[in-house]
């Protein structure tokens, strides 16, 4: 059966390297896996339980439904101050409060890109900690940390063949991981 996977980018800027990575994923996916980018992270207001009490913002509900309907989610994120960006954490915080949290039991894979030589690894390990509370099922390996990303992206697409191969392997592993989770 075909697998539908949604992708979420932790950067809002138009020229984002992580968005370039996210944009390139469909061409690296194994046969039968479709990848759809989640929109609207930047439309989610700052988390406030008083606001939640008035009803969930439409951007949260829509994203939650899209994640719930998907077989898995891939989060592609920059590292900000050795952690994940506040916008991503804010979105996750909102989504986690939905009556049926869409992350529980959901297969998740993580990717990061950075201009540094570590490729955002510290953000990935913070995100893994958050995923424990979400009760998501996070793929361990292969890890995708794109270091010196400015040398690997051209015209808004990931062009470096070595990196593309690592990502192909992660997406294939993710397909198998989802299959095992659904078995
Ligand atoms: C950064 N950047 C950064 N990079 C890194 O490798 N480790 C870090 O801790 C940080 N910290 C950090 C904090 C803040 C507030 C900003 C704005 C930036 C640099 C960051 O990786 C770089 O700007 C990336 O290009 C951001 O990703 P996108 O937007 O290109 O996807």
Describe this structure in words.
The chain is an alpha/beta fold. A hairpin with a 2-residue loop joins strand 7 and strand 8. It has one domain (3-182): Flavodoxin domain (Rossmann fold, 3-Layer(aba) Sandwich). Helices cover 39% and strands 19% of the residues. The model has no long low-confidence stretch (mean pLDDT 97). The longest helix has 22 residues, at 161-182. Strands 1, 2, 3, 4, 5 and 6 form a 6-stranded parallel β-sheet that branches. Strands 7-8 form a two-stranded antiparallel ribbon. 41% of the residues are buried. It binds ligand FNR. Ligand FNR binds next to helix 1. GO terms for molecular function: FMN binding; oxidoreductase activity.
Helical/strand content category = alpha/beta
The rough form would be described as: globular
Provide the CATH topology. Rossmann fold
Helix content: 25-40%
- Largest beta-sheet characterization: 6 strands, parallel
CATH homologous superfamily (4th level) name = Flavodoxin domain
Q: How many helices?
A: 6
- Report the span from N to C terminus: 12 Å
Radius of gyration: 16 Å
What are the salient characteristics of this protein?
FMN_Rdtase-like_dom, 8 strands, two-stranded antiparallel sheet, globular, NADPH-dependent FMN reductase-like domain-containing protein, single chain, FMN binding, alpha/beta, 183 residues, Rossmann fold, Flavoprotein-like_sf, binds ligand FNR, oxidoreductase activity, 6 helices
